[in-house]
Amino acid sequence: MERTTILEANTITKTFGKKTALSSLSFFIHKGEKVALIGPSGAGKTTLLNTIAGIVEPDSGEWIVAGKRRTDYKSGKAFAKKVGVIRQQFDLVGQLAVIHNVLAGRLAEWGLVKSLFSLLFPRDKEMAVAALKRVGLEDKMVEETSTLSGGEQQRVALARLLVQKPEIVLADEPVASLDPARAEDVLAIFSSIVTEENQTLIASLHSVEYARKYFTRIIALKDSKVFFDLPTDQVTDQLLDDLYKLEGSDGHG
Ligand SMILES: Nc1ncnc2c1ncn2[C@@H]1O[C@H](COP(=O)(O)OP(=O)(O)OP(=O)(O)O)[C@@H](O)[C@H]1O
C-alpha cells in the first residue's frame, strides 16, 4: 500500500535561552499513523507539538503540513481543517452547555457567533448529538460543562474533534489528569475515532504502556533529539530502559 506523507519535520530547531529544546529534528509521518511521543521530562515533546500547532515558532527548520509549509497557511480556518489540538486542559468553556463546546469545533469554519448560536441550525445540532453519542455522553448534552468529571470533559473534547474533523490530531498528554480506568477508556475511544475517520494522531505520553497499547509508532525524544523512532512492535524493554535511565546511573555501582 502506498503511504502518503501528511507531515514532515524538516530540521526543526528550537532553543530557549541556552537550553536546546529541539535539535534539528527531521522525520516523516504518514497518513493514518498513530504516533506516540515519549521520553523523559524536558526531552522536548511539548515543544515539538507546539511547533506543529504554530504555538511556538522554531528558530530554524519547518513543518510541511499536508504538502504545504505550515507558515504558508494564510488563514486559521484552512489550518484548522488540517490540524486539531487536544490540550491537557481541554480548552473547554466551563460555563457553556456541553453541546455548545462540541459545536465550538466548527468555530474555525463558522466564527464564534454562529458557533454559539448553532443550536438554531438543526443539521449542525444533529452532527453534535451524533458526536456526543459516539463518546457516550448524549445524556449530558445540556449540562454545564464544568459540572462534568475530568474524564467526561476529555470525552467532550473528543466529540468536538469529531465535528472539527481535522486530518491531523495533536494531543499533549491527553490522559495525564485521569485515573487509569478513565485514561484507558478515553484512549480507546480516541484511538478508534482516529482510525474510523482516517485521521493521523500524534500524542505525547508519559505512559509507555499506553503508547504500546494504542499507538502504531513510537518516537522517543531524549535531550532534544530523537533517541529512537520505531514501529511499536519493535520497541524493546532495553530501549525503554536506556531512554529513561538517569544520567550517571548506568548500573555499574
Ligand atoms: N517557554 C519556555 N521557556 C524556557 N524554557 C522552555 C520553555 N518551554 C520549554 N522549555 C524548556 O525546553 C525543554 C523542553 O521542554 P518540553 O516542555 O518540550 O519537554 P517535555 O518533553 O514536554 O517535558 P514534560 O514531559 O515534562 O512535559 C525543557 O528543558 C524546558 O525547560
Automatic annotation (TrEMBL):
Residues 7-248 form the ABC transporter domain. SMART domains: AAA (SM00382). Gene3D superfamilies: P-loop containing nucleotide triphosphate hydrolases. The keyword Nucleotide-binding applies. Keywords: ATP-binding, Cell membrane, Membrane, Nucleotide-binding, Phosphonate transport, Translocase, Transport. GO terms for cellular component: membrane. It comes from the Bacteria. SUPFAM superfamilies: P-loop containing nucleoside triphosphate hydrolases. This is Phosphonate ABC transporter ATP-binding protein. GO terms for molecular function: ABC-type phosphonate transporter activity; ATP binding; ATP hydrolysis activity. CDD domains: ABC_PhnC_transporter.
